[in-house]
Amino acid sequence: MFEQPVTNPVLIFAIAMVVFLIAPLIMAKLRIPGIIGLILAGVIIGPNGLGMLDRDPTIVLLGTVGLLYIIFIAGLEIDLDGFKKYRTRSLFFGSMSFTIPFILGTIVVYLLGYSTAAAILLGSLLGSHTLLAYPIASRIGITKNKSVTTTVGGTIMTDTLALLILAIVAGSTQGELTANFWFILLVSLALYVAAVLILVPIVAKFFFRTLSSEGALEFIFVMTVLFVSAYFATIAGLEPIIGAFLAGLALNRFISEQGTLMNRIKFVGNALFIPFFLLSVGMLMDIRILLSDPSAWLMAAVVVTLVISGKFLAAWIAGKIYHYSSDEIKLMFGLSIPQAAATLAATLVGYDLGLFNQATVNAVIVMILVTCMIGPYMVEVYARKIALKEEQRPYEPSEAPQRVLVPVANPKTIESLLELAFIIRGNSPEPLYTLSVAQGRGEEAPEKIIQAEKTLSKAVSYAAGAEVPIQMLTRVDPNITSGMIRAMQESRITTAVIGWNGKLSTPQRMFGGILDQLLERTNQMILVSKLGHPLNTTKRLVVIIPSGFDHKRAAYESIRTAKQLASQIGAIITVYVIHDETKSYEKMFDKVKPDVQLQVIGVPTWNELHHSFMPHLRKDDLVAVLSARRGTLAWHPQLERLPRVLAVAKPESFIMIYPPDREPVDLRGSRGTDVPRTMLSNKSYEE
Fold first, then answer.
1. Which of 81, 142, 317, 678 is deepest in the core (most CB within 10 A)?
2. What residues form the membrane-spanning segments (predicted)?
């Protein structure tokens, strides 16, 4: 039906998008990091697999952009203050992480009959590493942990040394290893690093103060800095990944971790370019060589053994010297073992220079595939363990004023939503924000706005009776969720109270398209409520807490919200803690005001909750689930099932409380909060 490999650019892109969609879903079912699925997909559909796609210049281009993206984001997110604090550790670990695999690799490969230049080059590529699993640590929220900071800082050392040796070996092979060569290399390196770290901040400061006017322009500026820096790295005799990392360091102070721009950068990278890089890595594998040449398997076993033993030994030595825990040592190992960036560069150069044969290239690709599986798995497991073991933060109420938003669409639910919002708002001096999004454009917009304002007028009348000031917000947007998020950003909302009617648009989603995507695209506290009875008739607030919730940064804020709700409606609290220690939660509830009659019950499993506890809930109970966004700490698949269960359960009302997943937004500043990360369909936000 189609010629192979596919040459139609539209079809190539379509196949890639299908792979990017399906591969992570399959890996999720197998509980394997999604990035591994993309590498395996490259092996299967690549030129050495089924031959559907060729590793043509387009794939190489997009893959290279993805590689630079990974390194650039690592530079943006590195904790500079932490790096300064642990710079000695970073330099020591980076030296060990490079030197040990380098020495082991050089000796063993030389004994296998390789030339001196080939042995040194292969040893050097074993010493480098790519921060492929860093996004996992970032998602779990431990990027400021000393082990992560140490490993990320060590990347500067390992990749720089690996690429310098690559330049030296290439120069010696071509007969250019002269005094002039050394002088040019060292001088160009020093000038380049100084230029990026000095000039880029000056230009960035000028741009953000005087020229920046919109998000798209800011994003283009950042991309310009990234790729110009990467290109001039090649002019200086370095690999572009060094330029990408330095560009990230130079812009680190100008791009807020919780800001709009950072999320735009991550979205484009995670959705498009990084998957292309992983796909291109898999396409390098030639299974036929492995099947026909036993020496390739021997070489693959050698390099895999060397890189695993060398990287673990380096992490173990550094960890023991600096008194890191066993989990932190394993996390450092997981972060530093993936091979991709400098490894690929050195391998391809070595092959072009005739130092490596096809069997060696395939052995290195096997090593890349294996390490890219081990690394993300180790980081996923031990990052969560570290996050759960980190010392819990004491409860410190935010000094920033709380701003509560109530999106309204259904006039029948306005009053119940406003009642809940009044409780959540408490005594805040801030007005209560009500929002209506007019879904339309062009000539339809004025009529839609009139309809939206009519809906809001009822909310104003109801709030006036409670003497609560109202700030009406109306937005016109063809995409309802985008309009909601824009309003939240512009008004610097901290909490959104949203209604849900219990109906699902598709069986795969928790609430429906709009609410699901709103949770994915925001970091503020979100309360999704289905209120079937007046709140003031509630006698008991049943709080369901998943395992590990006490280690979330905003755990105290969620508990304060629950206790405030119970206090205002005069209800007692019964807490069900799923598969976790109850004493920790008892202490947390005791620390938070106001005082409410409380009972904490441990529930062994989710099945026990559904079969033994849920049937005993009463009709007038209000169930509050302290939930977690997908992929974050304390998330469990059962949390996505609960809304469906509660929608048909005996209690008429429930609230899903999603705490803020990052530090509270400083409302006195000028920046907004999060930014859209995905596009979505248009549906009513009270689906």
1. 142
2. 6-28, 35-53, 59-78, 90-112, 118-136, 148-169, 181-203, 238-255, 267-291, 297-319, 331-351, 363-383
